[in-house]
Amino acid sequence: MNRLACIAVIGAALIAAPLPAVGADAGERFMVPGPGTGSCESWTQGREAAGKDTLYSFTQEGWARLGRETWVLGYITALNAWYLPTDRGAVRNLSEGTDRAGLFAWIDNYCADYPLMHLTDATYLLADELAEKWLAAHPLQ
Question: Is 3 a member of any domain?
Fold first, then answer.
């Protein structure tokens, strides 16, 4: 019984604990786990250190770069699943017409211009632009 009580107390404490949030755009607040909280400067440095088009190295920076890039792809995937409407008769794919390299090039350009912004901000703005294009290409039928 002590073990069950301990688990219940820990669970209640975790639920009640305030979660940190990162602003995305226009005052929106949401939890950003993982590499999305990093700066654009860390994105740029990581991409330049290994070469933008090279395979990942098994170094600390190589793993960090992989984590940041995977986080961006996960963000886009989540929006494909939960944001894009299902009534358009098309595959819900924000990155339609581009590929992984194209997504990362967009973030490379944004982060070069705004190194102090968060990777979350860059990804949010990229997704917003992609969503606008996807919705225009797939109007409600």
Answer: no
